[in-house]
Description:
The protein is built from six helices and no strands. It has helices at residues 17-47, 54-61, 65-70, 72-81, 83-92, 111-173. Helix 1 (17-47) packs across helix 2 (54-61) and helix 1 (17-47) packs parallel to helix 4. The chain has two domains: 17-101, no CATH class; 102-174. The longest helix has 63 residues, at 111-173. The chain is an all-alpha fold. The protein is elongated, with a radius of gyration of 39 Å.
Amino acid sequence: MRKRKRSLRPLDHTYSEQQLAGLRAHAQAQKQGTVERLKIAIASLQVQHQPISARTIYEECGLSYASLRRNPEALLLYQQHSTFLKREHKRTRTACPDTAAPRDPLLAYKKPDLVARLRHEQERRAELERQQTTILADYVQKDVKIAELEAELARYRQYFEGLRLQVQPQEHRS
């Protein structure tokens, strides 16, 4: 007997702010409850001198590792007390295992999106280089023109200086 696939239609739920606030409060209470259960389980395991691992925590209080992983505060608490992780920490001597390395936002992109972004940036860079080349060529032409005008101005100054030297004696004779 074949099961018929149900079409996945988006559910159209609109919640009021009061309902959303209630949901958020409930989620926060659940998170705190998880952290409290974990603290009690860790304390109990330490009293019993048992290793603190995901398996022993599950046996002690019924919290699975997936539950801990979904709750950042509980995961941090577990990582701080885990016997295995402490042993690994002593071996590797890392700087601070409790602080997670910041995740690069580009790692969230799919490869085709990254390729598209890369190509777009390469085109943009090529366009900027063309613009800069054009601007540089304009500046070089202006510098050449300025040099030509300064040379011409120097010739005119020399001509006028010579002319002034010829005119001065004639002015003194008159």
